[in-house]
C-alpha cells in the first residue's frame, strides 16, 4: 500500500465517521440554538434509533448479512427503514421533550440539562434490560460492492453514508433557511420573547427542533448499524461525546458549523489513529474540545452569542 | 462530660441492646439453620454476560447437586450471586467488583467465593479478600500478576494466598499461543492489539515476549478503546503494514467489533486471541462469515466433548437450557474444590470457618471434571494446559453452539 493510497483510505474512513458525527451534532446544535440546552438524552436517542432501524429491517425479513438485495428492492427497503427509523426516533425526541423538559421550561439553572442526563440513562437501561447486553449482529441487505482506488477501497456502504448524510443535511439547511417554520426557529433562537410577541408559537418550534434533531440521530443510528454491521446498548456515549465536540468545534447552535465540525472530528480520528496511535484518539478529541472552549467558545463558524436578558 | 455516669434509663437501653444482640447470636446454633454461604461474582451485565451466565450456571449446578444430597456433613450451601458488570462500563467494572468483595467479606456466613470472570475485577477484589481472609477460586481470570509473588504486597497484603484458579494463567496462555503462531501457523510478522484492560494488556505482553524469542517480528502494537465503535483506522494501518497475523489480547466488547471490521478490511489475515475471544458472542454477535477462521485459546484442558462428559453436558443443558463451555466446567470444578474444602473442615461436627476453608483449599487434592486439581503456594493451578480452537461454522449445528469453536489441540509449551 503506497503512502498516498493509505492517506486516501484513511480519508475515506474519516469522512464516513465524520458524516455520522455530523448527523448527531446537528441534533445538539438545533436544540442548543433554540433552548440553550445541551441535550444529553440525544446520545441515547441515537442508540435507540439504531435499534429501531434494526427491528424495522428485521420486520422486513432481513437477518444478518445473509439476505443481499440490489436495485429497486434495495432502495425501497432502505427508504422504508430510514423513514420508519427517523419518524419513531423523532417521536421519541418529542416525547422526551414533552414529558421531561417542558415542565422544567421556566426553571432556571442546570435542572433541564441534568434531567437530560437522567433521561439518557433511562433509555440506556431500558434497552439494556429489554434486549440484553450483547452486541447485536445488524441486518444488512447491502451488496458487497466496492471499488478499488489504487490499494484503497471505497465500499458501497461508505458512499451510501455520505449520500444519505449530505441529503439530510441539505434538507435541514433548506428547511431552516427557507421555510416559514425555519424562519420561526431562527427567530426563536435569536430572541424567544420577541419571537413570541410576533406570534411565533415557541412551544411548537421547540417540538419541531426536538423532532428534527432526534430524527437525524435516528438516521445516524441506522447508518451506524449498516456501516459496522453491529449495534449495542453502549454505542451512544462515545459517538455522542465526539459529536458533541464536533458541534462545539463548529460553533454550537450553527447548522453548517455542526457539519464542518463532524467532518473535522472524523478526519482527526482517522489520521490520529494512523499517525499517532488509536489510544490517543480521545485525548486528542477532548483536547480540541477544551481548547475550543477556552480560546474560541463560539467555535469555527459561530458568532459570539448576543446577551439574552 | 467525659465521665458521664450511666443513668438508670441508659442502663435499661444498654441491657435491652445486649439482650437483642445475644438473641441474634443464638440463632445459628439451631440445627436446621446449619448452612454456609458461598459468594459468586461474574460480569453478568455487559459484553461478556453470555459467558458469565454459563460459568455461574456451572457453579450453581455443583452446589445444587450437593444440597440435593443433603448438603456437606449436614451443611447446606447458600449461594449469593453478585454482578460486577455495570451498564456504564458496558462490561466488568473494577469499582463494582471491589464493592462486591466488601459485601462478601462483611457477610460472616461466607466461607469462600467463586469468581471473578475478569482479571480486571480480580485485581480490585484480591486485596479486600486478603484482608478478610476469604478464599476465592476463579474459573476464568488468567492475568498472572494477581498470584505472582512479586506483587504479593498489592494483591495479598495479609500474606496468605486467597486467589486460587482452576485455570492456567496468561503467563502460559500468551506464550503458548505465540509458539503455536510460530511453529504451526509459521507466522513471521504479527501486529498486536489489546483492549487496554488488565487482562488484555497482560496477555498481549506475554504473547509479545515469547513471540520475539521465537523470532516473530512485531510490526506494531495498538491499544483499542473498548467503548469506541470504529477500528477501521487502526485496521487500515495494519493493512498497509501487511503482517502475516493479528494477535488480540482482550475481551469481547472490543473483540466483537474488531472481528467484524477486520473481516471487511483484512479478510485473509490470520487472526487470533486468548480466552477473551472464546465466547458465544463471537458466534452470534460477530456471526458468519466475519468470525470464520478466528483462533481462540482456553486456559484449561478441553473436556466438554470428551465421552466421559456426555452425561454432565446433558444434565447441564437440561437444567439451564444452554450448552456448557469449558469455563462452565472450570466453574463447576471450582465449586467441587470448595465443597471438598467444606467437607474436610466440617468432619466430626467441627464448624467450617472461613480461615479453615481457606487452608483446606490451599491443601486440596481433588478429582474434578478437568482432572486432578491442586494448587501451588501462590494459588495457581498445577496443571497448565492451553487449548487452541478455531471458529468454523458447522452446517449441522446452530450458530450459537460452542462446538463451532473447533478444537485443534493443546498449544505447544515450547
Describe this structure in words.
Chain A has 309 residues and is mainly alpha-helical. Chain A has a domain of 214 residues. In chain A, strand 2 and strand 3 form a beta hairpin. The longest helix of chain A has 33 residues. Chain B has two domains: 201 residues, Rossmann fold (3-Layer(aba) Sandwich), CATH 3.40.50; 152 residues, Response regulator (Rossmann fold). Helices cover 42% and strands 17% of the residues of chain B. Chain B contains 13 helices and 14 strands. In chain B, helix 2 packs parallel to helix 12. The termini of chain B are far apart. In chain B, 55% of the residues are buried.
Q: Name the CATH class of the largest domain in chain B.
A: Alpha Beta
Helix content of chain A: over 70%
User: Main β-sheet of chain A: number of strands, strand sense, barrel status?
Assistant: 2 strands, antiparallel
Q: What's the assembly state of these chains? A: heterodimer
The total of helices of chain A stands at 11
The number of distinct structural domains of chain B comes to: 2
Task: State the low-pLDDT regions of chain B, or none.
Answer: 18-31
- The CATH architecture of the largest domain in chain B would be 3-Layer(aba) Sandwich
Reading side by side through the largest sheet of chain B, how are the strands ordered?
Answer: 2-1-3-4-5
Cα distance, first to last residue of chain B?
74 Å
Q: Enumerate how many helices of chain B there are, as a single number.
A: 13
Amino acid at each position: 500500500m503506497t503512502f498516498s493510497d493509505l492517506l486516501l483510505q484513511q480519508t475515506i474512513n474519516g469522512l464516513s465517521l465524520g458524516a455520522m458525527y455530523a448527523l448527531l451534532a446537528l441534533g445538539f446544535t438545533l436544540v442548543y440554538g433554540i433552548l440553550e440546552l445541551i441535550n444529553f438524552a440525544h446520545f441515547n436517542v441515537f442508540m435507540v434509533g439504531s435499534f429501531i432501524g434494526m427491528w424495522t429491517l428485521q420486520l422486513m425479513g432481513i437477518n444478518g448479512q445473509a439476505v443481499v438485495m440490489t436495485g429497486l428492492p434495495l432502495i425501497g427497503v432502505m427508504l422504508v427503514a430510514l423513514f420508519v427509523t427517523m419518524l419513531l426516533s423523532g417521536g421519541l425526541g418529542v416525547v422526551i421533550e414533552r414529558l421531561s423538559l417542558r415542565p422544567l421550561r421556566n426553571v432556571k439553572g442546570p435542572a433541564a440539562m441534568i434531567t437530560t442526563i437522567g433521561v439518557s440513562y433511562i433509555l440506556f437501561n431500558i434497552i439494556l434490560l429489554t434486549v440484553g447486553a450483547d452486541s447485536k449482529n445488524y441486518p444488512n441487505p447491502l451488496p458487497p460492492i466496492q471499488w478499488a482506488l489504487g490499494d484503497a477501497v471505497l465500499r458501497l456502504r461508505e458512499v451510501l453514508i455520505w449520500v444519505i448524510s449530505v441529503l439530510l443535511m441539505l434538507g435541514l439547511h433548506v428547511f431552516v433557511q427557507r421555510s416559514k417554520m425555519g424562519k420561526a426557529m431562527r427567530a426563536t433562537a435569536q430572541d424567544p420573547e420577541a419571537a413570541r410577541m410576533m406570534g411565533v408559537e415557541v412551544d411548537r418550534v421547540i417540538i419541531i427542533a426536538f423532532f428534527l434533531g432526534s430524527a437525524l440521530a435516528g438516521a445516524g443510528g441506522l447508518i451506524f448499524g449498516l456501516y459496522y454491521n453491529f449495534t449495542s446498548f453502549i454505542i451512544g456515549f462515545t459517538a455522542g461525546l465526539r459529536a458533541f465536540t464536533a458541534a462545539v468545534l463548529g460553533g454550537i447552535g450553527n447548522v453548517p458549523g455542526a457539519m464542518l465540525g463532524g467532518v473535522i472530528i472524523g478526519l482527526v480520528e482517522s489520521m490520529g489513529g494512523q499517525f499517532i496511535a488509536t489510544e490517543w484518539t480521545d485525548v486528542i478529541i477532548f483536547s480540541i474540545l477544551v481548547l475550543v472552549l477556552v480560546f474560541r467558545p463560539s467555535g469555527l463558524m459561530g458568532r459570539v452569542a448576543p446577551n439574552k436578558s | 462530660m467525659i465521665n458521664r455516669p450511666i443513668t438508670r434509663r441508659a442502663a435499661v437501653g444498654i441491657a435491652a441492646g445486649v439482650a437483642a444482640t445475644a438473641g441474634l447470636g443464638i440463632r445459628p446454633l439451631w440445627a436446621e439453620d446449619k448452612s454456609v454461604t458461598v459468594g459468586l461474582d461474574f460480569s453478568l451485565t455487559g459484553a461478556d454476560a453470555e459467558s458469565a451466565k454459563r460459568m455461574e450456571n456451572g457453579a450453581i449446578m455443583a452446589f445444587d447437586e450437593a444440597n440435593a444430597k443433603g448438603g456437606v456433613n449436614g451443611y447446606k450451601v447458600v449461594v449469593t450471586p453478585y454482578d460486577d458488570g455495570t451498564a456504564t462500563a458496558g462490561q466488568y467494572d473494577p469499582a463494582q467488583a471491589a464493592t462486591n468483595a466488601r459485601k462478601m467479606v462483611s457477610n460472616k456466613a461466607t466461607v469462600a467465593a467463586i469468581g471473578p470472570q475478569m482479571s480486571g475485577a480480580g485485581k480490585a477484589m484480591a486485596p479486600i479478600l486478603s484482608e478478610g481472609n476469604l478464599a476465592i477460586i476463579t474459573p476464568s481470570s488468567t492475568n498472572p500478576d494477581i498470584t505472582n509473588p512479586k506483587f504479593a504486597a498489592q494483591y495479598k497484603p495479609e500474606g496468605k494466598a486467597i486467589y486460587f484458579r482452576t485455570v492456567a494463567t496468561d503467563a502460559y496462555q500468551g506464550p503458548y499461543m505465540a509458539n503455536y503462531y510460530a511453529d504451526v501457523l509459521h507466522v513471521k510478522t504479527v501486529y498486536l492489539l489489546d483492549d487496554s484492560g488488565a487482562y488484555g494488556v497482560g496477555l498481549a505482553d506475554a504473547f509479545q515476549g515469547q513471540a520475539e524469542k521465537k523470532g516473530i517480528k512485531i510490526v506494531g502494537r495498538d491499544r483499542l478503546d473498548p467503548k469506541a465503535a470504529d477500528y477501521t483506522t487502526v485496521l487500515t494501518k495494519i493493512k498497509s503494514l501487511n503482517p502475516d497475523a493479528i494477535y488480540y489480547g482482550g475481551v469481547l466488547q472490543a473483540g466483537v467489533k474488531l472481528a467484524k471490521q477486520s473481516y471487511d478490511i483484512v479478510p485473509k489475515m490470520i487472526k487470533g486471541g486468548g480466552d477473551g475471544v472464546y465466547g458465544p458472542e463471537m458466534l452470534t454477535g460477530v456471526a458468519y462469515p466475519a468470525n470464520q477462521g478466528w483462533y481462540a485459546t482456553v486456559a484449561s484442558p478441553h473436556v466438554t466433548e470428551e465421552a466421559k462428559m456426555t452425561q454432565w453436558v446433558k444434565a447441564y443443558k437440561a437444567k439451564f437450557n444452554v450448552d456448557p463451555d469449558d469455563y462452565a466446567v472450570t466453574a463447576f470444578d471450582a465449586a467441587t474444590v470448595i465443597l471438598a474444602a467444606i467437607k474436610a473442615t466440617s468432619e466430626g461436627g467441627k464448624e467450617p470457618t472461613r480461615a479453615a476453608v481457606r487452608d483446606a483449599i490451599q491443601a486440596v487434592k481433588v478429582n474434578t471434571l478437568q482432572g486432578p486439581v491442586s494448587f501451588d503456594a501462590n494459588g495457581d493451578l498445577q496443571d497448565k494446559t492451553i487449548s487452541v480452537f478455531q471458529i468454523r461454522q458447522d452446517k449441522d449445528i446452530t450458530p450459537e453452539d460452542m462446538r463451532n469453536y473447533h478444537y485443534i489441540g493443546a498449544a505447544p509449551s515450547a
